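Contributing: when you submit paired examples, paste them exactly as shown. First protein:
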Amino acid sequence: MDDLHKFDDIVKQLQQKYLAIDQDTDDHLFGLLYSKPITYWDYIQTDALLNLQIQRTTLPDEMVFIAYHQINELIFKMILWEIQQVAEKEDLNAKYFEDKIMRVSRYFDMLTTSFNIMREGMEIEQYMKFRYTLTPASGFQSAQYRMIEFASTELINLIDYRFRKTIDRNTPFEHAFEHLYWQAAGKDYKTGKKSTLLVNFEKRYKGDFIRFMQTYNTKNLWSRFKELPKNDQENPDLVKAMRHYDHTVNITWVMAHYHAAKHYIESGTGDGEATGGSDWKKYMHPKYQKRIFFPELWTQNEIKNWGENL
């Protein structure tokens, strides 16, 4: 009898579900008669996922390089998924905010420690051979990472340090885009000429970036933080989580990436240049651009010494 009541209750809930979207419950139940049972490999799309690693050379360690970067992009997707929930949360509070920020930080903690796979998991000789087939591509061209930055902070904090005084909230997005900190890695500001690395990147993603910048202009993590009640903004756990995220992304993770790149690029077996031709040291090292998502949460001395002595 209990099983019958449970069945009736489930049917009623299904009827309510489909009624709410003007659907016929019987049609959906009838469809179940012909649906196939789910399997792990169908649900995860394992076959499709494992067929995305296409090597350009015969060097075996190239597989490590490809799979590693694809894993990074999957993690970036998860990070953006968490940030989006904060951006769109209506009844946002300190506890929810802290939980989401710490989720994202854990993803970046994992990315940081995983750089050992890059440093220790590929033979230098192999990397220095297959890297030339990547030219002019570069990890610089990770669109999702740029979106994480746009979704994390006010746009002014991503502007090249040299131009911040000339840009404010009234500056057109197109103009601000041309002065983002990472433009320095692909542009000669004396001639105004952009590298092929940057030209290709913008051709593919500039429109998406401008729209994304507009979307997150008022709902990035810092904007949402400032919308919280004053007591929530002063919540020590939330402030600690925000600082941890800022430091993790803009110093810890960046420096792990920097040292991994240095391990190969300055190995003495190549020309010492990045595949995309960027000034990779000044682009990557935090002490040059002082990328800080939440500068108001740091002291002037901490900002002054950001990324120093690393």
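Second protein:
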Amino acid sequence: MHVPLALGVLVASLLAGCGSKGLAPVDERYAPAPPGFYRVRAGDTLSEIAERERIGMRKLAAWNELAPPYPIYAGQLLRMQAPPGGGASGDDARRASAARTPAEPAAKTAAKPPAQPATASKPAKTATTPAPRPGSGASASGLTWAWPVSGRLLQRYQPNDRTRQGIRIAAEVGTPVAAAADGEVVYSGRSGLAGYGNLIIVKHSPRYLSAYGFNRRVLVSEGTRVKRGQQLAEVGQSAAGQPMLHFEIRRDGATVDPLLFLPAAG
């Protein structure tokens, strides 16, 4: 499976509804958690919950079938103990399943007015989306960002394309991969997503994470505090054998365009 597609499908399965049947009412998602579960609050991250409850983060992720970068959302139920028989069952399973599915937005029923026909003297205008201005989102994040490697941009971010949930930067195998901002390493090693290779995830704040894929070798372990520009790994290659780094920035678990945070390339 294509790397960004696998990661995108994982996030989409947790954050998007799958139909009108079986959806939990909105108020139920914020009700007290049943015994053995924890109700996620706004601003929570999996690593903080694991530390607060004195549970290993990988163990907590496994109990809840979460894979890197462990996206969670307010109102979600997390299992806080090993599921009986290795899996959730009964009412608890139904509660957890319902909590993972946000309420479906109301359907739009208002009809759009018919478009005016174009005339020869006034051709119809085509809407265009302006290109993102490099670094325009950095100040709002409260972080100072830097490029993890220098190189030619091979792939841009596309918000509605699950195969393009990050950017890809060309670099020779063995090139140092640097932390894009200060933070703490919360994942380091082989990922559970096919084709992702050696993966590093750095938590920069309660809202922001960055992910670095296709590494040949990782040089930091989980729990390590890193500074912007500090080496994390060495560039490897994609499943197709092309030397590159796959890089993502996530805000509240959802991908955002890294070019909005990285400074303009010099």
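If you have annotations for the second protein, write them as plain sentences, like these:
The chain is about 15% helix and 25% strand.
Confidence is low (pLDDT under 50) at residues 1-30, 87-114, 116-129.
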